[in-house]
Design brief:
- This protein has 634 residues and is an alpha/beta fold.
- The protein is built from 24 helices and 20 strands.
- α4 links the parallel β2 and β3.
- The longest helix has 19 residues.
Length: 634
Amino acid sequence: MTGTYLPDAFATHKVEAMVKLLGLDPLDAEQWDFLQSETTQDLQAAPGSGKTTLIGLKLALMADAWTSVTRGVCVLSHTNTAKNEITDRVASLAAGRSLLRYPHFIGTIQSFVHTFLALPAVRTKGVEVRSVDDTAFETAAIRLLQHPDYSTLRSYVERQRDGTGIVTGATFAYKDGELVVTGSTREPPFRAETASGKQLSHLKRTLARRGVFRYQDMYAIAQQYLAEHPGVVPAVSARFPFVLLDEMQDTSTIQQELLDFVFASSPTVMQRVGDTNQGIYSDAGAVNGSASAFPLAGAAELPVSRRFGPQIAAVASRLAVRRPQQVHGAGPDGQVAVLLFDEATAIDVVSTFERMAAAIVPEDILLRRPPRVLGARQGRGNSQAYPQSISCYVPGYTPPGRPTAHRVLVDAARAAGTQWSSGADSHEAATELWNALRASFVPLTGEGLPALGRLERSAATPGGKVRILLRELLTHGATFDEASWGMITEQLTLQMKLLADRPLKAVGLEFTPAAETAAAVGDVPRTSAAVPAVRAVPGTIQSAKGETHAATLILECLEKTGKKFDVTEALRMVVEGSAPQQELKSVQAAVQLVFVGATRPTHLLVLAAHRDRSKRYAEAMIDAGWDVRDLTEH
């Protein structure tokens, strides 16, 4: 990276000064090694080891020393939440805020692929992108399916159980030098040369010409673009001499292949950070068998967790499935407990946990980080086995469905407003908000609404007035209440109809208060009048990934094959000391989720297991210092 930043960027005196400025704890040897590393490497980081803090510190030092005005740092993660956390950290310092502007890039892998590969590819074909969103694609695909051109496909779909998924899941894949149409997770049930196959391909390509895509499409389009335009690779790799990839364990095969294609053979320094034992997504594990397997041999390691103490660390160490890992707990002295229940007392598990959390965790910490109730499955399946899911413990619990249109639009306005106010790419923020808005106004006839760049600028025109309303949403939308939202959407509806000059159907402009989680538990019957001040919030283990809780309850659920129960298997492995890598694949997958949930809490970890299956382990758990409570005996 010669000439891109000052050579003393990571000098000891600069690091110590930055640590002091940010109010961080002193660094240990492993953290120093990673921080001062300037070569390609992997970092395997235990849960709570300060990975995100370390990334923020390294980026702050790099930003302070960066000298190039045309080449930048590229920071990639997998979710907007993780990206925003990194952005917030670098934005807290004046020097760090430079990373939010050109030539740097901080975003998700998806947004990186969009920005530098897929969107340029689509534009070279003269296509105007209207939306890259699975939900928007599904809506458009079902609407187009009603056209007479697709009568054979429609007839087939209507005869199948959940047949519409064939159409709504139609996805591009790059095979043998061209884009082919496949399903979201598997091939359609008919051959491409059949009438239904031809109509599905035609429908998918028609929507593509209209600029409507699924998220996964963009990876296939990017692959084709790179194959047809080899000059893109040196251009992108030269733009970014340093790439930092966070949450590496969640990188899918196709994502890693694209990143390798762009950066692997270039002088770019790529540092990958993550925890392979938290890789819970099915495709992510496929990377482990490739030349890009994470972590590579000789990877650096952060084994010390400052989130929790020795008790929880010992549990985590026994449940490390993908890679043996001895986690050292240097956080608060915590407590591990097990609640044994049967069918009659499952309803008491959550309330017992809440009372335990109130008694063990200091109230100020509990208020700041409310207790969480986590399970691997949300709703009951067809099996008669018990318990299956969160709903077995929380009567009235309704698994949250796909975000509704109004929820998506409100969230889009708030997210774009946050990006706008942070000083990041204002054009990108405005474009994202406009795409969400025009997806909420569906033309009853003809083509959709124009892209942002085609809106007129004169304030006397509908396009100009829409631009003014967009700016109002970007500037103040994050603080809008229901009345304010109603007023601006009423004005938008009027101007959008004038802009389209054709009938429009407004979809989901309603305002919904962001209080879903507070009401998610429902009215759970209590077995005691002593109701804690802080109620637990239920959800899936997957949804809590990356979070830190004061107290966490893991509910036993039926694993996906329907043959075993996850918490019981985890308890067996802890007590018996069996090697996780030698377990059945289905057990490994179930226990890996338990590992993710069990490494969230700082003060209290509670595992709930059916008495009939786990009572046999009680004595060993008590000997280990755990609090074992049998709810059937109270």
